[in-house]
Design a protein that fits this description.
Length: 145
């Protein structure tokens, strides 16, 4: 088991949702802390709460990409490649996860099991999605560290 997977399991055991774990892994990688960002990511969990919306891992991954490539202050321009990176993430998630599970909503991915069972189902998806997020960023010369 690699360090990222171990850290994912630790965060899950502490009660963080999938989208929050995406944020926490990102902040760990940058040796940063941002509780507000982590709290905000809770709003994406389980398809924004009812399972019918897009999986929090896709929306969380897009937030992580935006964390690095988006405009954050009046003096920043943000990356001109942000929309391309978001499109790349969306296409990858739909092609990989959506095809495998019959859709990209939480209900499609975890089925009748609901959010309680999502930890066992979604752990692998979290690892794949986090790796793809880092790949997209580095492919666009953004090196989260």
């Amino acid at each position: 088991m690699d360090d990222t997977l171990m850290q994912m399991l630790r965060y899950a055991a502490k009660g963080y949702a999938c989208s929050q774990i995406m944020a926490l892994l990102t902040l760990d990688r940058c040796k940063a802390s941002n509780p507000g960002f982590v709290r905000a990511m809770a709003g994406l969990a389980y398809g924004c709460g009812n399972g019918a919306a897009t999986c929090g891992l896709l929306t969380g991954a897009c937030c992580v990409i935006g964390y690095f490539a988006g405009k954050g202050t009046d003096d920043e321009a943000g990356s001109e490649e942000l929309m391309l990176m978001l499109e790349t993430m969306n296409d990858w998630f739909q092609g990989q996860i959506g095809e495998r599970h019959g859709g990209i909503t939480c209900q499609a991915i975890v089925g009748e099991a609901g959010p309680e069972a999502s930890r066992s189902i979604c752990g692998g998806i979290l690892a794949e999605t986090y790796a793809q997020t880092v790949k997209i960023l580095t492919d666009h010369d953004i090196h989260p560290q």
